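Researcher: Let's run the pair from yesterday's discussion. Sequence first, then tokens, for each.
Model: Starting with the first of the pair.
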Amino acid sequence: MAPVPKNTIEHFTHPGHKLVALNAATELTFLCDGCKTIGRGARFRCNACHFELHEFCGRCPAALSSFMHPLSLVVRKAQGARQNERTCDVCGDGVERLFFRCKDCEFDVHPLCNRLPQSLRHALHPLQPSTCSWCAVCRGACTTWRYSCGFCNVDIHLDCILALPPPPLPTAVPFPYGGG
């Protein structure tokens, strides 16, 4: 078998086809044929049939350990062959085809949702995952993944975090005692 060029992969979800790496413009969206969620930007694509994978879905490992849970990659059966519905325990959307699962507690997560940071900083709040009841931005009930500031009791939905503008860069403060 000939070696696979560096900018192509062979993926078990699309056997017999080579997927070419694309660095597409970030404003162009696509539906990932691996995890069935919307993607934007870099991806792998089969030029023969337009099968597309997020860059991470194309390279995600079979097992990984994250701050969330020890996780194993699962390939979900076709919709007609399922016994029950499953949702991502981070974003609340349904999981389709590729997703990660904790075998001990059945925690399910999309490949991209698994890449969320354990903590982040937004404005003046250091935020950690939490179990809040109300979002400080939209005032809606929190039923899925959210971040919380333990110092001031600010809880924010994941969607609201992603929709907020990034915090401003610090500005230089002039030295108050002359000098120039």
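Model: Moving on to the second of the pair.
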Amino acid sequence: MTKKHNVVKPRRKYDEDFKNEAVRLVTTGQRSVPDVARSLGISENILYRWKGHTNKSVESPTGISQQDYDQLREQLRRTEQERDILKKALAIFSRLT
């Protein structure tokens, strides 16, 4: 009877650039998660985990962080409100003359 020796693989570390590039390939729709994982020699689960983390904290494929995006949405909302107020004021003053 032979004994099985459990071989423990050392845990690999990936730098942020590598992770971001892998996630970018998936999020831009260029390639699927299984395809990217296979080509990079990593687990699909790791890539899905990285993708989940980047949705919360890292910039999107457009280069705008979620915080900047939210800030721009709020600025757009305020600008639209101001525009609507000015339209109403113009209509009121146009009637008076």
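Researcher: Give me one sentence on the second I can quote.
Model: The mean pLDDT is 83.
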